[in-house]
Design a protein that fits this description.
Layout lengths: L2 H9 L60 H7 L13 H11 L30 H17 L2 H5 L13 H15 L9 H11 L21 H22 L10 H21 L6 H111 L4 H58 L32 H4 L5 H84 L2 H79 L1
Helix pairs in contact: 2-8, 4-8, 6-8, 9-10, 10-11, 10-13
Protein name: Kinetochore protein NDC80
Subunit structure: Component of the NDC80 complex.
InterPro entries: Kinetochore_Ndc80, Ndc80_CH, Ndc80_sf
């Protein structure tokens, strides 16, 4: 309704009294239908005479407990508080029933509750430890702090102390209850006795522990029954705190999505416009400019964020290119390391085979030498024997038979000598063959050492000792065929370096270091690639979101312009029909009742949709929790598998080391 026409009903000299028969009526809507509800006016309020009136929700200033015009946040809070005690809401017939039984048609502003329908109202048992002295002291202190903080004494001009909430008088209780309830429903006026008012109000706002309140005991709340009434006052305090927090936007926004932020901007605009609407102001351009400015600021923040993300993306792109270049070098080093590893294994096998051959030929040569020494001794003995025999023959005159016998023995000894000579020649031939084979093996060893040194010189980096100096891994032969090197250990021949004890551990360590560096660089490259992909996806999402927001803002502006034009047209039509509709008040009341029924049906359907949305959100939350749990299990299994592989590899390395030490 046009605020000017509404003012004409209040201020115009031709204003006709059209108030309902009951004077004490709250102008506040019920919490479940707070924006467009079937209101009953008090004697001092404006009365709309069209089917969709603008109802002033501002209370009269005659009471000292007024909070002023209720905010849109309070009305919105009324639709979401106390979801566990939802009822189907009151229709017009229920409001009529309440009017007939209580002598008034008051629709309370108390949040989160609807008027119970007759005796079907169900209450729960009070599980609070109200008889506990500590609990009483706690809720008494919280109630006292709330009253002091919100200037109870100044507004009521009634003294308040700690003792007031421990042993109150009936007046203390009545004033505290009225003050707390008027913070919920500033337009309500207390006209009946306190026991009727308290019980009726508690029943209307669905006090969850109404069974503990005895209507006959309200007129004397002190004594043993005081804990129950103190708990009721504390419940009203908590209810007021919740509404205050909601009205002051005391709720977190850290988990808001972009849509939620935009909705909040638009809701603030609607809230401010609605307050101005209730204050009979028709100029909303200031709030519209604020909304547009907030949209522009939000878009600017998104653009700045996108610029930062673009800069980060460029940096990551450059870093990725550098890592790709490093990856090529790593692949080259890895291939060289694999080649060195193969050469090292071959070199190790060759050295081991040479060691085995050396040990074998040392035994063979020692046996040959022993046989030669034995043959020389035997030859000397034969020669000495022959000389002695010749001497004896000369000294003694021997007979021919003796000479024949001596000749036969000589022939026998000659044959033995021939056999020894043949054996010696065979041994000499075998020794020469072995020497030739050893010479060939020595040449092969020199070629292998030369290849090994070439590979070592081509290494881009070499292992370093504790002082930071590079360790020389090259080897060379030190006159292996010299007489002084015969029978010497390998480290004497290879310039004092022992391949198994010195060079092999260094090469293994160098190989492990290269493998670790390769693995670390690969992991970092994968992480950087993941971050780059994620940031690219975020950039695309933000671009799509900006496009969607711009389209939504355009539609919102068009809708707002259309709404303004519609409101102006409706205002003009309403001004033309005010006089006619003044004479049709009875018909208007019937149309108003029908409108309330439609709005009540709409509220019920909205409540059902809200329940479905909550169920969907809960289902999605459970699904996401299950997904997170599965991811955690996969990561844990992966970690355990990697740890087992590392333990096996460590055991393999230790076994290889033990075998090497054992072979040495």
């Amino acid at each position: 309704m046009n605020p000017q026409s509404s003012e004409s009903l209040q201020r115009g000299p031709q204003r006709t009294s059209m108030n309902p028969p009951h004077n004490s009526k709250s102008m506040l809507p019920t919490a479940r239908n707070s924006l467009t509800s079937n209101h009953r006016r008090s004697g001092s309020s404006r009365l709309s005479v069209i089917s969709n009136p603008r109802n002033s929700l501002a209370p009269g200033r005659s009471t000292p407990y007024s909070r002023g015009t209720p905010t849109l946040s309070e009305m919105m809070a009324a639709s979401v508080k106390r979801t566990s005690m939802r009822s189907s809401g009151i229709g017009f017939s229920q409001a009529q029933q309440h009017q007939g039984s209580g002598g008034r048609n008051r629709l309370s502003m108390a949040p989160g509750f609807t008027t119970p329908s007759g005796s079907n109202n169900s209450t729960s048992r009070d599980t609070r430890p109200l008889r506990d002295k500590n609990y009483q002291a706690k809720i008494s202190q919280e109630t006292f702090d709330y009253l002091v903080k919100n200037k109870f004494e100044i507004e009521t001009r009634h003294p308040l102390t700690q003792k007031t909430l421990k042993a109150p008088t009936q007046k203390d209780f009545a004033l505290i209850f009225q003050w707390l309830y008027k913070r919920l429903d500033p337009g309500y006026k207390f006209t009946r006795s306190i026991e009727h008012e308290v019980y009726s109000i508690l029943k209307i706002i669905n006090y969850p522990f109404l069974d503990s309140i005895n209507k006959s005991q309200i007129s004397a709340v002190g004594g043993q029954n005081w804990p129950y009434y103190l708990g009721m006052l504390h419940w009203l305090v908590e209810l007021n705190r919740s509404l205050d927090a909601f009205d002051n936007k005391a709720y977190g926004t850290e988990n808001y999505t972009e849509d939620d932020v935009l909705d909040q901007i638009f809701i603030r605009y609607i809230s401010k416009s609605y307050k101005a609407f209730l204050s009979n102001e028709d100029d909303y351009s200031e709030y519209k400019e604020e909304m547009i400015q907030e949209f522009d600021d939000h878009s600017l923040k998104i653009k700045e964020k996108m610029a930062d993300m673009k800069e980060d993306s460029d940096k990551l792109e450059k870093k990725l290119q550098q890592m790709e270049k490093s990856a090529e070098q790593i692949h080259s080093l890895e291939s060289k390391g694999e080649a060195l590893e193969g050469d090292l294994l071959k070199f190790k096998a060759y050295i081991e085979s040479m060691e085995r051959r050396k040990m074998k030929w040392e035994g063979v040569l020692s046996k040959i030498k022993e046989e030669l020494d034995a043959a020389d001794v035997e030859l000397k003995e034969v020669q000495e024997t022959k000389a002695n025999l010749d001497l004896k023959i000369k000294e003694q005159g021997l007979e021919p038979a003796d000479i024949d016998r001596i000749n036969a023995e000589r022939e026998k000894l000659g044959k033995s000598l021939e056999r020894v000579n043949a054996s010696l020649e065979e041994m000499t031939r075998i020794s020469k063959d072995k020497e030739l084979a050893a010479q060939n093996e020595l040449e092969n060893l020199e070629i292998l050492i030369h290849s090994y040194n070439d590979v070592v010189y081509r290494l881009p980096a070499r292992p370093k000792d504790s002082t930071g100096n590079e360790i020389d891994l090259s080897v060379s032969l030190n006159a292996p065929l010299a007489e002084e090197n015969l029978g010497q250990p390998p480290e004497k021949i290879v310039k004092g370096k022992y391949m198994i004890r010195e060079i092999r551990p260094l090469l293994q360590k160098f190989r492990f270091d290269i493998s670790d560096n390769v693995r670390k660089l690969q992991d970092e490259m994968i992480q950087e690639q993941d971050q780059l992909d994620k940031m690219s996806e975020d950039i695309i999402e933000k671009q799509d979101e900006i496009t969607r927001l711009e389209a939504k803002l355009k539609l919102t502006r068009i809708s707002h312009d259309t709404l303004v034009e519609t409101m102006q047209a409706e205002t003009a039509a309403s001004n033309a029909e005010i006089e006619k509709m003044t004479h049709e008040l009875q018909r208007m009341e019937l149309a108003f009742k029908q409108s309330q029924l439609q709005l009540e049906q709409r509220r019920q359907s909205t409540a059902i949709k809200h329940e479905k949305v909550q169920q969907f959100v809960q289902h999605e939350r459970e699904r996401m929790h299950e997904k997170v749990r599965q991811v955690i299990f996969k990561v844990t299994d992966f970690k355990v598998g990697i740890q087992e592989l590392l333990e096996k590899y460590e055991k393999f390395v230790l076994d290889e080391w033990d075998n090497t030490v054992a072979n040495e």
